[in-house]
Amino acid sequence: MRRTQVVQSNRFRGGHLSTIAAAGAVLMLCLSGCSPLNQRPSPAESSAAASFVSTSVAAKPFAVPPKPLPWADRPEYVQIDTGPGSHAAAPATTVSVQEAALGTKLPDSLNGLSFEADVLTEGLLDPENSNIAQTLSYLGSPVLRFGGNTVDRRFFWTSTDEPLPHWSVPAEEGVAKVTPVDLERLKRLAGATSAKVIVSADLGHHEPARAADFAVHAKHILGSSLLGISIGNEPNGYVNSDDYLGIRDKSYNFQSYASEYRPMVDAILKAAPGIRIIGPDVYAQKWLTDFASLDVPNLGALAYHNYPLSACSSGDTGPAVPSVANAMSAAMAAHVLENGGAVNDIGRGAGVPVWLTETNLSSCFGGNAVTEKHLDSLWAVNYSLGAASEGTSQVDWHGALQNCEGSPPASPLCDQGRHQQPQDALAMKPLYYGMMLVNNIAPGGFQKVATFGGENVHAYAVRQSARKLSVILINENDPARFGQSAVTVKLPAKARTGTMSQLTGPDLRAEKATRIDGQESAGVPVDYRARIPGFKTGSSTLKLPITAGTATVLDFSF
Question: What is the largest CA-CA distance in the chain?
């Protein structure tokens, strides 16, 4: 039976950020004996620091030769050494891919980014002034969602350059003034990256005419890049004891919300016919169920939020406390699958897609045991694939574009400059590597998979066609403690070829050493990847040792 509670969000509010220093020793993931078709960095890459701060325009992705080698001539993939002390035996695991389809799909570019609405004013969004286009290109054609707590509290849209209103907001944050100039900048970014965009209108101050004006300009300027518009953010949390977050009195409930929401929808659709409404962007399942029954016109998707490790108080205990053990537990993996399944049941009943428009592993202010760690990348792979296997067709990871020293630790990206001295050059944190690995799996339908053995090895299979299949293995055992896990993969037919790509890190707690195929990029392109070690043409069963702390993509042709 599925558990149906959507885990409550308590993540950082827009602009109010804790400072964290970028420190620690750098561990290079240089792999001895690897060929250029595998994962050895170039000499220039090897001499550069492997800290995420070096992941910028200077990072060199795989240099594509004129054409890939024939499969039989490619070298075998060489996995990273688990290092000293990693000698404990991990349980053996058998993964059996079934012929039966789950009925859900892995879409193209599943993982996208969610930002606070005030990020629309950031000059870094201009592809001519930063490396943002290159960085986003590693995700394919991602969704960029702009919303968060900012939108209902200090986001002020004006198309006529009105003076800022005198709203009560923290002095260090201020009211963010967004104009058509900001949307034009976003249009240039979408054009340079093929990204799709979700914008959000302010429900907190409830000005239907202003929201309608925003929708008109967004539709006109962004054109086909605009997926839709949300109205408000997490209205189920409007009643809050925090002076900033609490924007409604204690009597506010779903009925109060519905009475505010429908006039906003009507004004938007009258001014911008055809624009898709995305909602309700809540973290409570009861609100999702009630919203689905509202019969919202032109509803494009049912949007929800989820931050599984959201027990942030010092005295909190239990499975929602941010800890390595909780993040990597089999119970948590099962819980999020059940949670996603319950939400998707609501979406199927309403006949609309389900989008996870805001998520992250932890919602707590400041750094903790799981933020900026290698385990976050493994979590992202398992969580996003699990959500998609249940039916979710979009996963947007919440973050910021501020300095690495001072940005929200859970953010997938940060600016490499020092505090208050941005460089307009983005760095990729471990989470972003997990997002990239998943987005570089070719879209297709999920197949049923039976997994036996180690509870810390998770598996998914995606069928692209009758002749192509991807198997994804996430080994969440800690590489600081365990060696390789013996994994047996049973395929539904005899495979002709098999290639491999792998996300690695030396320790679940490592902060700056996550890589894909040893690179500070999305890794080796699929057409150039090395052979699976030990795989032979005509095999339907593969026995492969998989290094702890890795996420591995095996691509087969038949």
Answer: 71
**Around 80, how many Cα atoms within 13 Å sit in the side-chain half-sphere?**
33
At residue 480, the 3 state secondary structure works out as coil
Residues 266/315, Cβ–Cβ less than 8 Å: no
**For the whole model, what pTM was predicted?**
0.90
Which amino acid would we find at residue 426?
L
User: How would you write 74-121 as a 3-class SS string?
Assistant: CCECCCCCCCCCCCECCCCEEEEEEEEEEEEEECCCCEEEEEEHHHHH
Q: How many helices (H) and strands (E) does the chain have?
A: 10, 21
> pLDDT-derived band of residue 42, with 50, 70 and 90 as boundaries?
very low
Summarize pLDDT for 342-390 with one digit per residue, the tens.
999 999 999 999 999 999 999 888 788 899 999 999 999 999 999 999 9
Among 23-32, 223-232, 454-463, which is the least confidently predicted range?
Answer: 23-32
Helix 180-193 and helix 208-222: axis angle, to 10°?
A: 40
- What is residue 123's three-state secondary structure? helix
Write the DSSP assignment of 9-49 as a string of letters. P-PPPTT--------S-------TT--TTTTPPPHHHHHS-
CA–CA dist 445, 537 (Å, integer): 24
Rounded CA gap, 507 and 501, in Å? 19
Closest of 456, 453, 536, 449 to residue 490, by C-alpha: 449
**Integer angstrom CA distances of residue 48 from 27, 58, 524:** 11, 9, 19
Q: Which of 322, 338, 428 is nearest to 379 (CA)?
A: 322
Q: Is the dihedral of CA 321, 323, 325, 329 positive or negative?
A: positive
Express each pLDDT in 104-133 by its tens digit. 999 999 999 999 999 999 999 999 999 999
SS3 for 553? strand
User: Which of these, 176, 268, 266, lies nearest to 229 by C-alpha position?
Assistant: 268
Residue 427 sits at the vertex; the CA angle it makes with 40 and 77, to the nearest 5 degrees, is: 20
CB of 426 closer than 8 Å to CB of 135: yes
